[in-house]
Structures are given as C-alpha cells and as structure tokens.
Amino acid sequence: MKNSLIICNPNSGRVKNLNFKSKCLEILKCNGYQSNFVCSEYKGHAEKLVSEVKNVDLIISIGGDGTFSEIVSGNAKRNNPILISHIPAGTANDIGAMYGYSLNIVNDLEGLLNGEIKNVDLGTINGIPFTYTVGFGKFLDVPYITSAEMKEKYGYLAYLIMALKKFKERIPNYRISYINNGKIFDLECSFFLVTNSSKIAGTNGFYRNVLLDDGKFEVIMAKINNRFDMISKLFSLIAKHGENNSNFNFLRTEEMKIFFHDDNIPTWCKDGEILDNIKNPVVISSKKKMKILLPRQNLGNLFLK
C-alpha cells in the first residue's frame, strides 16, 4: 500500500468535531493508502511536519487557505517534494472554490482521489513560496487581523465587519519603482495585489483567462486618493475585469522587481497571513512548479495542459 499523511487544522471553520475522520481513513484505505491523521497544534506546525516527514506518497491538508499555504511552504523546503493536495474547510476557501470543491469534506476527498495530478505554478516573494496571493496596502491586513473568534461566529461576514472598522483609517501610499520586462515604472501605490487565482476574497472575475500553469501571475495596483475614491475603486474592481479597468494598473508577468523609496516598506499579506521583514528589493517570481492532486471539475478552465 501507499502511505498518506492527512494534516488537519482543528481550528478551521468546518472541522471542529472531526466527525469525518473515520470515513476519510476508510476511503483512503479503499484507494490503497495507509494513512496517518495529524492535527496541527500551532502556527507553522503543518509546515514543519511536511518538511520533515519520511516515507509518504501523498499529503492532504484539511483546513483553510493558510493551512494549505503551510503545506506548500514545507514541501518547498524538501529536496524530494511530495505530491500534495488540499480539501477546503476554512472561512474564505478561495483555493477550494477555484478548484470546484463541494465544501463537503468526505465528498471532496472522494473527488480528489479520482482526480488528476497537475503541475501548478508556485509563486515566490524573495524566495518565500505563496500559493495564490501576496500583496500590501489598504484592507490587505484584514485576513490576518480578523480574530478566530470572529470567524467562528460570523463566518465570511467577519472579514467584511473588520473591513468596515478599518474604513476610517488612514489610506497608506507607498512610492515604488518596479521593473517588468526590462522597463522601469514609478508610481505611488495604496493597493498592490499579486495573484495566481481566478477567485479572490470570495469574488470571481478580477482577471479573465487565469491559468495556473502558464508560468505567469497577475498583478493589480492602484493609488487611492481619499475615501470616496476608495469606494469608487472597490466597486469598480468588483464590477469590471482587472485588465479592462482604467482605475487600476494591471499586468501579467513571470517576474517583477519592486523597490520601495524612503525605506517605507509595508507589511505584506501572504495567502491570508502576515508576512513581515521583507527587504528591498522585492522580487516576485513564478518560475517554479508544484505537483498537486486535484479534482476534475474545473481543470479544463484552469490549465493549458
């Protein structure tokens, strides 16, 4: 039999009582896997488990986007990366929604094991892996400052509540220069978001024709002048595709280098978690791949091959 490791975040929204555990182990056994089920105990634990585990053929994460991000980061540290997969069980679950999961853990596992192995682009920021998004600026700290208690009580609405609380706060502006395709661009930026996903913050269609194996990521940037401008741009971002939206700078690229002026370097958000201590220059790249076992539902829309 093959060996699998299931890493579950017990604090994720839909895994509180683990009533799916025995059924999942049974399904894996029927599919030829001897399985070990482990609950992560602290931030970074899942990453540590993946980076150190031996004699495993498949790793399955059960949790939110942050849990999967740890799985990816741990796997990237290995000399011999392991086949990984993810079953969404968190609050936002942008990754799971993009891949077409049903949000029923047992059903999703069955679909996963009947899925396909795909080579997915792996983004990095100064060498640190991210799975689907990294950025800085207005509202991008909402995912990691929203408490677990709020998310448990209100679900996805917790993020909206926190965003409303932050609405009156100062709008940050950062003077940056960035290099893309050998050209240098200068701008002031209040909002900067890099993604490799067709779904962000519960919203579809920021970008059209997003592919997860084209070696490129999408970038959206904007300067926000005041609160009225902020409201206008937010509605515009939801209503229009990024590349057709004159309120934003948009590009699709495989690598860009960013310089912050005046040593005013912000705290970044990576896959919904805080990422600090990022230094100049900031290099964001999409030149690596990771093997992921995925359900078949949306593969035709997300991959070149």
User: How would you classify the helix and strand content by structural class?
Assistant: alpha+beta
Q: What series of H and E elements makes up the topology? A: EHEHEHEHHEEEHHHEEEEEEHEEEEEH
Helix content: 25-40%
Largest sheet data: 6 strands, antiparallel
SS summary, helix count: 10
Architecture per CATH nomenclature, i.e. the level-2 architecture of the largest domain:
Sandwich
- Mean pLDDT level: 88
Overall shape: globular
Calculate the terminal CA-CA distance, rounded to whole Å: 29 Å
Oligomer: single chain
Read across the widest sheet, the strand sequence of neighbours is 6-5-18-15-8-9
The CATH topology of the largest domain turns out to be Tumour Suppressor Smad4
